[in-house]
Amino acid sequence: MGNGIRTGVLGSNGKVGKAIIEGVEAASDAEFTVGVDKGDSLQDFVDSQTSVVVDFTHPDAVMDNLKFLIDNGIHAVVGTTGFTQERLDTVVEWLGDDPRSGVLIAPNFAIGAVLSMRFAQQAARFFDSVEVVELHHPFKADAPSGTAGRTAQLIAAARAEAGLGASPDATSTGLEGARGADVDGVRVHSIRLAGLVAHQEVLFGTQGETLTIRHDSIDRNSFVPGVLLGVREIGSRPGLTVGLEHLMDL
Ligand SMILES: NC(=O)C1=CN([C@@H]2O[C@H](COP(=O)(O)OP(=O)(O)OC[C@H]3O[C@@H](n4cnc5c(N)ncnc54)[C@H](OP(=O)(O)O)[C@@H]3O)[C@@H](O)[C@H]2O)C=CC1
Ligand SMILES: O=C(O)C1=N[C@H](C(=O)O)C[C@H](O)C1
């Protein structure tokens, strides 16, 4: 057994899971133990003395995975989407008052995406209007993306704190869906297009000017540095951490 952080991957045959395995194998301070995909046994993580498991599976699967990892005192770095407040509360309940595991759940592990969310949060109070457009590959399980949902929540909270009302919008008729989804009062539009990976634009507008904050993941290896940061840090952060920004001193 080597000296690196013993790291396993859930969703190991998936698009992101494969990139994470490559990243862990290339890291000098981490050691890949085992990959588990649909139909495989989670017990493999216990048998291989895995310390941290990275989960990129599916919103329908991730809660059962987390329950197993927490019950077995294994740390978790989770990129899988679908985390409502109710789900986060359940994870906190499972962790208990004296948690043995650290769990990091982040809607986006790309460093630029985390920064763009923070920039959008900072800009929000200066603009009358805001809309979020997220653009992804057509095999994505969910819409809107976890990143877009979180971005909209952060913007909505910043606008409320600044005393801003709703973005101006005189639309009264039209096809259902034409104005996108409403996330805490912020319109979010989801594009699914062959050839894309993961992209997001936040569009702000006010008198005589607009501001667009855009992030592009052009390769799934963009998620690797953030995941490795999580793998390195999560062992010293028992309990639940939501968002990579907490590990980036933002
Ligand atoms: N936070 C972030 O930075 C990012 C998050 N994501 C999120 O990660 C998730 C996965 O994305 P992606 O890799 O593109 O998806 P994929 O469908 O390519 O990969 C998911 C893999 O997980 C497998 N799987 C499904 N259920 C289980 C289970 N119970 N146990 C083990 N493995 C399982 C799937 O198997 P099968 O195909 O047979 O169902 C598949 O091999 C999504 O929720 C996505 O939104 C993606 C990119 C970045
Ligand atoms: O499914 C994806 O691909 C991605 N999912 C995450 C999300 O829903 O925000 C992160 C990134 O956008 C890629």
What portion of the residues fall into strands of 2 or more residues? 25-35%
Distance between the termini: 35 Å
User: Taking all residues together, what is the mean pLDDT?
Assistant: 97
Shape verdict: elongated
Describe this structure in a few short sentences.
Homotetramer. The protein is built from 7 helices and 11 strands.
What would your notes on this structure say?
This protein has 250 residues and is α/β, with parallel strands linked by helices. It folds into 2 domains: 5-109 and 221-247, Rossmann fold (3-Layer(aba) Sandwich), CATH 3.40.50; 111-218, Dihydrodipicolinate Reductase, domain 2 (2-Layer Sandwich). It is 31% helix and 26% strand. It contains 7 helices and 11 strands. The chain has helices at residues 15-26, 43-47, 62-71, 85-95, 111-123, 146-161, 224-233, and strands at 5-10, 30-36, 52-55, 75-78, 102-105, 129-136, 181-183, 186-192, 198-206, 209-217, 239-242. The strands form 2 sheets. The protein has a 6-stranded parallel β-sheet, sandwiched between helices. It has a 5-stranded mixed β-sheet with strand order 7-8-6-9-10. Helix 3 (62-71) packs parallel to helix 4 (85-95) and helix 5 (111-123) runs parallel beside helix 6 (146-161). The longest helix is centred in the middle third of the chain and has 16 residues, at 146-161. The protein is elongated. The mean pLDDT is 97. Bound molecules: NADPH dihydro-nicotinamide-adenine-dinucleotide phosphate (NDP) and ligand LZUJQKHR.
